[in-house]
Amino acid sequence: MERLSRPQALAFAAAAAATCALTAATASWAYHTRFVANNCNTNPPQFTSYFTRDGSITVALYAQREGYQWAGGCWNDNDVDDSPGDPTSDPNTGGEGPDCSGFAFKVWRESLNESDAGAYQWNKLRNVHGPYTAARFKTGDGAPNVTYGKTGLIRMDALASSTHIGLIYTANADGTDQIVEAKGEAYGTGVWTRAYRGESSYGGVRRLGWDA
Amino acid sequence: MRRVTSRTIMCGAAGVLAGLVTAVGVVALTQVAAAHGVTSADRDPAGLIEAAHLPPLLTVKGEPAVLRYDIYCAPPGGDPESGAPCDAGGTVYVRAGDSGPFRAVPLLLDTTASEGRYRADIPADIAGSHDGFSYYAVLRSNTSGAVSVVPAGGAAAPQRSRPLGEPALVQLGDHAFGAPARAAARVASAAWGSGDADVGLEPGPGLQPIGGSSFDVGETGTVSLLDEANHRVLRFSPGASKPVPVRVDVRGTMADLAVGSGGEMTILETVGDDGTTPLVRRFDAAGRLLGSLHLAERSASALELGPAGPVALEYPAAQWMPVAETAAGNASAGQRARGRAGRTLANGDELVVQRAGNEARIAQVGPRGVKRSWRIQSSTPLGEIQLANALGDKVVVVLRVYTDARDEFLVLLLGEKGLVTRFAIDSAGWAETAPLARFRLRGTALYALGSTPAGVFVDRYDMEVG
Fold first, then answer.
1. In Å, how far is B465's CA from the nearest CA of chain A?
2. Residue B201: which of B215, B189, B191, B211 has the closest Cα?
C-alpha cells in the first residue's frame, strides 16, 4: 500500500478531526435537548388536602444539586445536573431542572389555574413551569399568592425581584437567610446564603393555605 | 506555498468521511443512551436528613432557654414528595460553658410552631450558667433511621451560646433614608464588559445581574476586584491609570475573595461542581494555582483571612471553619472539629455577631468569656450584619437597614460606652455579589463595593477614630 505524503496525511487528519468535532458538537446539543423528552411526563397533578411547610421544604431539598433550565420544571434526584452547559439564552433546550419561578410554583404546589388556591402535588419528573414569572410572584399574582412584609417572612415564604425568586429555608444568625432556589445554569438548584431580604429590589411573597 | 494536488483533496475528503463515521458512532451511542433516559441512578430518598437551626449565639437575660430545630427527611408512607412532614426526633447534648460532660435533652415536637418545630428546653442550671452553654444535636429520621449531627463537629466543636453580660446599649431610632455620606475617594471603578479594564456580568436571561462578586484591599491600598465572569482579578494600584488583570482559574460563578499580604489570593467558590461542596482555591500573586480544598459543609457564605489562615463561614454548621491551615489543606473532619461561632481577631479574641429581630448584638470574647458587648436597637428593620471588626480599641459594624421599598448600609463605630459615630452608605447594589462581600476594613479606612447599571466601583470612607 502506498504511503500518504505528509501534507496528504495532515489533510486527512485535519478533515477527520474537524468533521468529528462538528458532529460531536451536534451530538452534544442533541443530548441537552433530550432530558425532558426522555425522562419527564405530563401527568395530571394530584390534589392534596393537607400540605405543610415541612413537606414542601423536603420536596425542595430533593432538587438540590440538580440542574437549572430556563422555563423548565422537571428534574430527577441523582445529585447531578444531567444537562450541564445548556445555552442560557434558549428556553427550549429541554434540559434538566426548574427555573426560579418554576421551582417556586412546583414546590408551593400551585395550580395552572391562577384562580385556584388549592394545593397540588407535582412529581419531580412532571415537566411543568406554571403561569408565573418571578415578577408576577413579586406582585402577588394568582389566588394562592400574596405580597407580605419582609420582616415577617418565615421558612417557605419567598423573596422575589423582577428577575428572580428564592424560597426561604432558614434564617442565619448574621441576618442573612439560607435560600433554596434555582439560581441559574451555572448554579443549578440548591441552598445558598443570600442577603435578599434587605435588598430593596426584593419583595416578600407568601403562599397561602399551609396546614402547618 | 505548497501546491494543493488532487490527491491532497482526496485525502481531505477521505478524512471527512472518516470523521463522519467516527462521529456518527459517537452520536448514535449518545442518543441511544439519551433515548433510554440513561442518567446516574436517583439517590435513595429515604436517606435525606437535613436540619435548620438558628443558634442563639448571644443571649440577654430573660430570654427563654429553648433551642429550636426544623428537621427534614422522607415522610412516612413511601412517597417522598407527598408533602407530609417527616417523623423525626433527636437529642440535644448540652453543657454549661466549654467543658465537662454533656447532658442529653430530648427534642420534642411543638405542633403549634410554624418554624422551629422541634424544641429542646435547656435545663435551668445550664441555661443560667454565667458563661453560657455549648451544645450539639443528633437528629434522626424515625422512618429511615438517617442521622444528622448539627453542628457536624459534634462534641469536638459544639455550637456556643454566650450571655452578653452588661452590654453597651445603642439606640438607633428611625433611620433617615436618603442622606448617605460622601466617600473620601473612589479607588476603583470599571464598566461592565469583557475588555481589559472591564468587569463581566454572568450570563443568563432570567438571572439577576451578578458580577464583581467580591473584592479585597491590601495594606498599600491596592484594590483587588474579583471579575469572576471573565475568570480574573483586576488589580487597581493607587495612582495607576488602569487595572492590571490577573487570570485565575475559577468557575465563573459567585465567589468571595481574600488577598494576603504578599498578593496571594484565596477564592471561595460558593458553588461546587456536581454533587460536591464549595471549593476554596489558592493562587499566588501571578494567578498560579497553589492548591484547592473542598469545604466540609454544604454551603458557605463568607471567606476571611484569619491569624492562622483562611476561614469560611460554613452551613448548616453555622460556624467559621479553617480551610487551609497547612500546605496540605484541612480535610472535612479537621474543618468541622475546629468550627467556631465567631471570627478570630488578630489578638486571638473572637468577635461574635447576631441579629435578632430589630436588634444586632456584638460581643468580643476572650479566653475568660465576653470582654465587652453591644446591643444595637433600631426602629427600622435590620438586615444582615455585613462587617464587624476591631479598629484599635473600638469596633466597626456595618449593617443594612431596610424597609419593603428602600435599603441603605449603616456604619457604626462602637466604643466602650456605646456609639461613637455613625453614617450611612448608599446600598448601590445593582449587581449581586457574594452575600457578605460588600465591605472591607483596612487600617482606618472602610472600603465599600457597589454597582450601578453602568459598572462596578469601590469607594473609600475614612473612619474618624480619635
1. 25
2. B211
Cell of A60: 425542595
Type and span of the H or E element at B50: strand B49-53
- Torsion angle, alpha carbons of B107, B111, B114, B119, to 10: -20
Closest CA to B85 of A56, A77, A60, A154: A56
In the three-class reduction of DSSP (H, G, I as helix; E, B as strand; rest coil), residue A102 is classed as: helix
Continuous H helices in A33-133 = 35-39, 53-62, 100-107
Q: Which residues of A touch B115 (CB under 8 A)?
A: 53, 154-155, 170
Classify residue A24: in a domain, yes or no. no
Mean pLDDT of B420-439: 97
Asked if the structure places residue A93 within a domain, the reply is yes
Are B159 and B136 a contacting pair, CB within 8 Å?
yes
DSSP state string for B73-137:
EPPTTS-TTS-PPP-EEEEEEEEETTSS--EEEE-EE-TT-SS--EEEEPPHHHHT-TT-EEEEE
> Residue B83 and residue A175: Cβ atoms within 8 Å?
no
Cis, peptide link before residue B453, omega less than 30° from 0: no
Chain-chain contact of A24 with B23 (C-beta, under 8 angstroms): yes
CATH of the domain at A41: 3.90.1720
Structural domain of residue A147, as residue ranges?
32-207
pLDDT per position as a tens digit, A119-151: 999 999 999 999 999 999 999 999 999 999 999
- Partner-chain residue, chosen from B73, B207, B406, that has the shortest CB–CB distance to A200: B406
Q: In this predicted model, what pLDDT tens digit does every residue of B29-39 receive, in sequence order?
A: 344 334 334 46
Q: What is the ipTM for the molecules in this complex? A: 0.91
Domain count, chain A: 1
Say if A189 falls within a structural domain. yes
C-alpha cell belonging to residue A97: 431542572
Q: A161 in a domain, yes or no?
A: yes
